[in-house]
Amino acid sequence: MAEQLRAVKGMNDILPPESARWEWFEDKVRALMARYGYANMRTPIVEPTPLFVRGLGEVTDIVEKEMYSFEDSMNGDKLTLRPENTAGIVRAVTEHSMLYDGGKRIYYIGPMFRHERPQRGRYRQFHQVGAEALGYAGPDVDAELILMCRALWRDIGLHDVRLELNSLGQPDERKAHREALIAYFEQHRDQLDVDAQRRLYSNPLRILDTKNPAMQALVEGAPKLMDYLGEASLAHFNAVRAILDANGLEYRINPRLVRGMDYYNLTVFEWVTDRLGSQGTVCGGGRYDYLIEQIGGKPAPAVGWALGVERVLELLKELGSIPPAPAPVAYAVVPSATVLGNAMVTIEALRAAGVSVLMHAAGKDGPGSMKSQFKRADASGARYALIFGEDEVSQGQVAVKPLRDASAAQTLRPLAQAGEWARELLNA
User: Does 128 count as an annotated binding residue?
Assistant: First the structure.
């Protein structure tokens, strides 16, 4: 016997009925994006490695430790499975000159890849939904994207998430803050862990995002970027806050919120929860006004967010808010092969009228007993059993038996008029 092959660790199969919940969530996302005027974009899963090195930053954890990168054996190209999709969206928008006639609002749904230690809510293949508004400089679009998240939480029944907000200012303001951070941490070098010492001169802002409990007091005392923001940056941040306040959206200003990519400036935000342990960030994003130019396009502002689908669904499950997988409206019981042709004509007519029908499939020894078929019909969750008995079919009829209402009577319906009585099944 050949060795059984298994999925790569941290890259999971999504099986029924769980896959139906994913489809439900994706449908909610698509409806939301349509309301806000965001169009779908689909980019390749494999991108040139320099796209992420240049876009995310060489000293980010993603680029240093987590990317699945390889060399194309045919031509030597350096390629990477996308670890996130903002850089890919920007590459596509730039490559196809999409901003020549004004800004674009884009969303995406798809798998991403990072070589991390698999744990609850964090996998090596994971899925993101993202929204990107490119070509818009105003704080109104920052606020719109944040309010869009709140609308999604309401649509899917998600609660127990809170918004954290910060501003990273502009590059010159960050530079002044960076110098102050380095000077501060140099004075406390003996308290820095290995990661912090490695980042001290390459990316000291990321030290503020440490999860090391031993460094929390040190980080709390570090210089705050907010104190280095100029008038324009503060005005942008306060305008975002004013819109959120006007819409009654509560938030907490978190001066340590820096995000994990180097491309952010001005507004950054995260939606977080305490219910998923260390993987508490459900959605995050911010403004990235310099990324388009970094990737080779003409300078243009942009802002966006991404959420982890697995984390959102895990949180819904934790809260007991995730809906059950949908059941068929009807289950077709076909006790004899002699009626199969008539049965399938009727079943197809019902399906064409919008009725979901699960048909009993015969085994190699025949269709199976009526008892076993009714057992499967009940287990399917269907509201009705359609019984294509030989006597009924010979009279041009099918028996319709309610399965979820013991007081409801079984009735007969004409095979030739399935499209008409289909509405009864749907509306019951």
Answer: yes
Determine if residue 105 is labeled as part of a ligand binding site. Answer: no
Give phi and psi for 165, each to the nearest 5.
-135, 145
Q: What CA–CA distance (Å, rounded) separates 176 from 311?
A: 36
Is 132 annotated among the ligand-binding residues?
yes
Measure the CA–CA gap between 309 and 322, rounded to whole angstroms. 13
- DSSP class of residue 415? G
Task: Name the residue ranges covered by the structural domains of the chain.
Answer: 18-170+230-319, 330-427
86 in a known ligand binding site? yes
Could you tell me which CATH class the domain 18-170+230-319 is placed in?
alpha beta
**If you classify domain 330-427 with CATH, what class do you get?**
alpha beta
Per-10-residue mean pLDDT of the chain, 428 residues long, equals 90 92 96 98 95 78 84 91 95 95 97 86 90 97 98 94 94 89 87 86 81 86 89 97 98 84 88 82 94 92 96 89 87 91 94 94 76 92 94 94 90 92 87
Q: Do the annotations mark residue 84 as ligand-binding?
A: yes
**According to the annotation, is 263 in a ligand binding site?**
yes
Phi, then psi, of 104 in degrees rounded to 5: -130, 140
